[in-house]
Automatic annotation (TrEMBL), chain A:
Keywords: Heme, Iron, Metal-binding, Monooxygenase, Oxidoreductase
Family named by the database record: Belongs to the cytochrome P450 family.
Cofactors required: heme
Gene Ontology molecular function: heme binding; iron ion binding; monooxygenase activity; oxidoreductase activity, acting on paired donors, with incorporation or reduction of molecular oxygen
PROSITE patterns: CYTOCHROME_P450
Organism: Mesorhizobium muleiense
Name listed for the protein in its UniProt record: Cytochrome P450
TrEMBL record, chain B:
PROSITE patterns, alphabetized: 2FE2S_FER_2 (PS51085), ADX (PS00814)
UniProt-listed Pfam families: Fer2
Keywords in alphabetical order: 2Fe-2S, Iron, Iron-sulfur, Metal-binding
Organism: Mesorhizobium muleiense
Alphabetized GO MF terms: 2 iron, 2 sulfur cluster binding; electron transfer activity; metal ion binding
Protein name: Ferredoxin, 2Fe-2S
Record-annotated 2Fe-2S ferredoxin-type domain positions: 2-105
Cofactor(s) of this protein: [2Fe-2S] cluster
CDD domains: fer2
GO BP terms: P450-containing electron transport chain
Family label: Belongs to the adrenodoxin/putidaredoxin family.
Length: 393, 105
């Protein structure tokens, strides 16, 4: 006999935004699928269940033409499956493969980090969200996409406006207007750049999309460039801050990483497991299906809470601890299955090989300005929102 | 049905009956072969399904795509001449009785 979906109705939306992990734990212990009223979604929170779901895309589909994401940015690869998805994915991958990242993007990314740090280095004090992580993430992304005339603040504004628009379930007109403005801005930037990339094939994403076989239509390019802007800026920014935070709060681990640079990789994976930049993404059922004994009906949507799975104590001991030496086990911060994050290799290189090592190299004796007042927020997207630090200038 | 011999990182061998047409990665998952994680479920995006094959059967498996070739350089275990992503290989008679080694990271 299958169980019915349990319901949690005494959690406030603000509880989720402030700190979703206690809610995730309660929901994970309650059942495999639990409807959380405040978020109006059925949450799947256990590691093994999410893996099983991601191995069955025919039942747990990403296709959802009516989704807000499609309304805001147009039909895009995140809401497609099968060959339609694979073709659009293959059109961007040539810009994002690990070897291409190393050969083509590592040097420009290093130059960006050096430039951003040079602007604050002499001061001995900075707020790392606005003065370091956001500009690095935005400028690196602009290079990879192939935009040469969009400043980082515009990139950041577009990214936030598109994200807010895709989550605008209350149909707030101001949020909808900003999302439209951002979409128009991205489309104009693409229009300005396409002739250049058509005439000069290069490793950027715009160029890869034009070189793809068959070449992507302008509508596909608009939509998937918007996906990359909405999905490739905040996550990188947040993981830069999270990795810095984890190391500053654990000076013994910081000392070990600095002495042994091969530990930067595991340290980054631990940071995105510890505070996953994307906490949840949806799938829609194409038929009735039991998830570990709980029946979910065809047409329903489930939220795969990878943030919760990354704290599943059946898999990770003391999950709330930042520990770069924990037994190596794969996590779900980049998702799983065919939609496994396309930017995984870019973010690994940028954050763990370039940005954060350079920060600790150049900002000597870096420390948190207010160790007792760390602001971290969000549940679908989560990260430090404000991080004042000081160092010996 | 071809028989595949998975050589595990601890030296043990796990011989399994494989269905032609499935991928080597799917065969490994169905038989809980340790060391094949396959995060991206066969999309050649994660490089966590790395295996090493005997060099003399490489040519029978057809060419490696540019994408797989790039990915193999970044798998956790160092690349070897017989390295492949197991999700990009379809089981066929060419693999009958072949040893498929899971490389240690
Ligand atoms: C630490 C940084 C990052 C994290 C944690 C992250 C996380 C994720 C997750 C969880 C997904 C799966 C969403 C789903 O299945 O619905 C995803 C997809 C995606 N990400 Fe990332 N991401 C990061 C950085 C980036 C960067 C830098 C880029 C672009 C350069 C990027 C581009 C994409 C794209 C295009 C997809 C959609 C892939 C598809 O549908 O096939 N991401 N990301
Ligand atoms: S399963 Fe991810 S690369 Fe083969």
């Amino acid at each position: 006999m299958s169980e019915a979906v349990k319901v949690v109705d005494d959690v406030a939306f603000e509880d989720l935004l402030a700190n979703p992990y206690p809610v995730f734990k309660r929901v994970r212990d309650l059942g495999p699928v639990v409807k959380v009223e405040a978020a109006n979604i059925m949450m799947v929170t256990r590691f093994d269940d999410i893996i099983a779901i991601e191995r069955d895309p025919e039942t747990f589909s990403s296709i959802n033409p009516q989704s807000l994401l499609n309304t805001v940015i147009g039909p895009n690869l995140m809401r497609k499956d099968g060959d339609d998805h694979a073709r659009e994915r293959a059109a961007m991958d040539p810009s994002l493969r690990p070897g291409v990242v190393k050969r083509c993007w590592a040097d420009p990314m290093r130059a960006i980090c050096d430039d951003v740090i040079s602007q604050i280095e002499h001061r001995g004090e900075a707020e790392l969200f606005d003065e370091l992580a956001a500009p690095i993430a935005a400028r690196a992304l602009a290079d990879i996409l192939g935009f040469d005339d969009v400043d980082w603040r515009t990139m950041a504004l577009w990214s936030q406006s598109l994200i807010d628009g895709s989550g605008n379930y209350s149909h707030n007109p101001e949020i909808a207007r900003k999302a439209r403005e951002a979409a128009n801005g991205v489309e104009s930037a693409v229009d300005r750049m396409l002739p250049h990339h058509r005439d000069n094939p290069n490793p950027s994403m715009l160029s890869s999309m034009l070189q793809a076989d068959p070449p992507q239509t302008v509508e596909q390019i608009y939509a998937n460039i918007k996906v990359a802007i909405g999905g490739g800026l905040n996550e990188t920014r947040d993981s830069i801050l999270t990795l810095i935070l984890g190391l500053l709060q654990n000076p013994d681990q910081l000392a070990r990483v600095r002495a042994e640079p091969s530990l930067w990789g595991p340290a980054f994976e631990e940071a995105v497991r510890w505070i996953s930049p994307i906490g949840m993404y949806p799938r829609r059922l194409t038929r009735d299906m039991e998830i570990s004994g709980t029946l979910v009906r065809k047409g329903e949507q489930v939220g795969l809470c990878v943030g919760a799975a990354n704290h599943d104590d059946r898999r990770f001991s003391d999950p709330e601890k930042f520990d770069i030496f924990r037994e190596e086990k794969s996590h779900l911060a980049f998702g799983a299955g065919s939609h496994f994050c396309a930017g995984t290799w870019v973010s690994r290189a940028l954050v763990s090989q370039i940005a954060v090592p350079t920060v600790f190299e150049r900002l000597r004796n870096l420390r948190l300005k207010n160790p007792d007042h760390i602001r971290i927020r969000g549940w679908v997207f989560r990260g430090p929102t404000h991080m004042p630090v000081v160092w010996d200038a | 049905m071809p028989k595949i011999r998975f050589l595990l990182t601890d030296g043990a061998e796990l011989a399994v009956e494989a269905q032609s047409g499935r991928t080597l990665m799917e065969t490994a998952l169905e038989n809980s072969v340790p060391g094949i994680i396959a995060e991206c479920n066969g999309s050649a995006a994660c490089a966590t399904c790395h295996v090493v094959l005997p060099e003399n059967i490489m040519s029978a498996l057809g060419p490696i795509s540019e994408h797989e070739n790039d990915m193999l350089d970044f798998a956790e275990a160092p690349r070897e001449p017989g390295s492949r992503l197991s999700c990009q290989i379809k089981v066929s008679d060419a693999l009958d009785n072949v040893s498929v080694r899971i490389p240690a990271a």
